Amino acid sequence: MDIRELRTFVTVVRGGSVSRAAEELNVAQPALSRQLKKLEEELGVTLLDRHGRGVTVTRAGSLLLARAEALLAEFAGIGPAVRASDDVVAGHVTLGVPPAAGLLIAPAVFRSFRARWPAATLQIREGISSLLEEWLLDGRLDVAVLHNPPPLDGIALQPILQERMVLVRARGAVETGPVRFRDLAAVPLILPSMPHSNRRLVERAALQHGVRLSASIEVDSIPLTKAMVAGGFGATILTHAGVARELASGELSAQPIDNPPLLSCVVIGSVAAESPRWLVGALAGLVAEEIASLVRSGAWAGGRLVAGEAAPA
Fold first, then answer.
1. Across the chain, what does the average pLDDT equal?
2. In this structure, are residues 300 and 291 in contact, taking their beta carbons and an 8 Å threshold?
3. What interhelical angle do 129-137 and 197-208 show, nearest 10?
């Protein structure tokens, strides 16, 4: 397997057909077909399903596509990194963010990253925490912002803040004040399915305190969950920051969970290596700075920094 075969594969998938890829790469179509066949033989899997309208990527092809794109991006950055002078930082790094927190984190991190290291490139990918954990482990991410991750072999985890979870109800709910954790057993809940980080946190707390929760509906999308709650189909459990906008507009209502409180921990994960790339560590530090700045400014509603975090730059 070589870089040319990977580039051919990625171009074919993006274009949806071998003929379009041949035209884009200015290579004869039979030559591209031979490269694809050789790649499939080397890997021992079918990467593309051929049909009259072009090609469709298989499951194995999808796995290769993600890795091939990352390798090609890294390969493209080698020249600029080598040619750069000693005082210029170049390279490519990939950051993973969860959906709700990512709306706060990504713009701030990207703005600072571009200002500090204009010769470097930053790719941002979004996914739920369990998916981000998987991408970190298989090398598709360099740094990720995670909610309540388990210990991960080969991944360095840095707790950055804690958030208090709240019970979210439809607008106009009459309940006021905190709700006891054990009283959640009587509430019809809309929760994500396992292994979503919110579900892991809630189920772990329920097990510890002997509470049997009633998850009447499972929805993995946070925006869809909030829409279902607004529609009166049940309540849900989210961080205060995750629902701050809807609380401010009056679309939803919320009660703190107390006795005991339910706390979610935000953690920065990065690949642990004997010789880590400088830019990976710098990105992790930048993410920590920006999160701390968001908390201190009040933009990250309900967040409390873990003791010992440095002041934002």
1. 85
2. yes
3. 110
- Reported for 136-140, long-range contacts at CB under 8 A and 24+ positions apart, including other chains, are 136/96, 136/269, 136/270, 136/271, 138/67, 139/67, 139/70, 139/271, 140/66, 140/67, 140/70, 140/94
Comparing CA positions, the residue from 301, 291, 292, 303 lying closest to residue 265 is 303
For residues 159 and 139, what is the distance between their CA atoms, to the nearest angstrom? 21
What is the architecture, at CATH level 2, of domain 3-67? Orthogonal Bundle (1.10)
Q: pTM here?
A: 0.66
- 3-class secondary-structure state, position 76: helix
The Cα angle at residue 152 between residues 147 and 158, in degrees rounded to 5: 55
pLDDT of residue 81: 60
Q: Are 194 and 200 in contact (CB under 8 A)?
A: yes
pLDDT of residue 312: 40
Distance of alpha carbon 156 from alpha carbon 190, whole angstroms: 32
Ordered by start, the domain boundaries in the chain are 3-67, 86-313
Distance of CA 305 to the CA centre of its chain: 20
